[in-house]
Amino acid sequence: MPDAPLIGPYRPDDVLAWEQGGPRTARQFLSDVARLAESLPDRPTVLNLATSRYEFLIGFAAAILRRQLTLLPQSRASQTLRRIVGDYPDSYGLTDREETIEGIESVSIQLRGGRAPWPGEIPGIPLSQVVAIAFTSGSTGQPMPNKKTWGALTGVAHATGSRLGIKGGDRAAVVATVPHQHMFGLEASVMLPIMHGLVMHAGRPLFPADIRSALADVTGQRILVTTPLHLYACVTEGVRVPPVGLILSATAPLSRSLAQQAERHFQTEVHEIFGFAEAGSVAQRRTIDGDQWRLLDGVRVVQDQTSWMVHAEYLPAPVPVPDRITVDAHGMFVIHGREADQVNVAGHRVSLGDLNQKLLEIDGVQDGVFFMPEEGADLVTRLMAFVVAPGKTSEELQRALRTHIDPVFMPRPLICVPSLPRNATGKLPRESVSELARQWLAGQGHDA
Amino acid sequence: MTSSALSPLEQDVAKLIVQTLKLKVDPATIDPTQALFGEGLGLDSIDALELSLAISQSYGYQLRSNDPEINAIFSSLRTLTKAIEKNRTK
Predict the structure, then answer these.
(1) ipTM exceeding the 0.90 mark
(2) Does B5 reside within a domain?
(3) For the whole model, what pTM was predicted?
(4) Interfacial A residues in 205-234 facing B (CB < 8 Å)
């Protein structure tokens, strides 16, 4: 069975990660991984919630060596974790803090200093080994599992690297603002650096001042893996940053004007990645060049009866594209919007059906619907919800909902209504909800 | 003065939070000791980022999450206001 090494071209004393202000070499990494692998419980699946990107990687690599599957929850919301633990009851948790996960055994990741031995050979992992499961929101309210093989993760890392001109041994440093448990974060901020022998910054800077100091922590060429939101914050704040060689943005569409501002501000090229959890990264573009996406090498899109399907050697089966796209003769494509049930809030994709289901599970809720307003001038367009729940207040419902859904999907606002405009067949056409939202927004000035 | 009465700066910061994040809350009713994130007002990290931009623009104070006290700063309206008072440049 063909395999691929756990890490790319590092010499023993090359820095692999920058952890809390200090370097970790490839030698230390392999020793950290081997030691943790020995001490992991004998279980099939692990929920890796480490907050440090480096400690997450140690846990991920150790689990791979033990042939365990790493579960990647969409969020840390307690309900999300409970559902996943319910589906995978033999799991244990990996954390890098004194943190426990309800209902399962937790192991904390410990690093040791000092000089570590070099194992001589970097472990090889079979390309067909399933190493992770990324969860997406299904329309039934249950998280949908998407299996990721080592071949898929390494394939995407190499295709992305070659498209962006990243060469093995460049020794560039990757600083990322995206979570590593998110598919794009795993691919661009963990797999991309370790497959190319780059330096991975373990932090996850949030505010512009944090991004500046994380970039200043590392030397040499810098790659910033981020989102339109963080780019907007840096440009607006006008923070002075050390030179950046490349910016990679994903999770939400980046406007051309923001891309232009970001290119000027950071004095570098801003590239975007298009992808989704089911297929991983699929295409790339330099945003200022136009709205056309170019597929990564080895990826094809083929139209079937209902939608466009992504094909790649490393995907066990073709995967439908969750957006409406048009493809030209050269395989370049343009995105026109989401398929009906899917919405994206700040880079988190969710099925409205799933959210509606969770709303209806709340005690006292008779009817309810989530609605995504048209994107406005705001930084992030939030969902709103209309709920029929006699005797309940908006605050009570918000509190109950908060334990069921990721905070990013919380409705702003949640509006209690006497009934929803369902039609004769009981359906709730989008236009009717849209009209309800329009009326409510128009009346906002009066009832405040 | 009871612990839940808002100081003038707390009132301004409460207004800034409600306006920036479009919350359906009367700024005057925010409990200054209540948590802003998670439970309480239920804000998330995107809110934190939006709020940091508004605070920077209004008060010239750039928040940093690797500030060892960031959780304390964000723990309530009162602690956030104290941090703004101490670090503001305008």
Answers:
(1) no
(2) no
(3) 0.85
(4) 205-210, 213, 229-230, 233
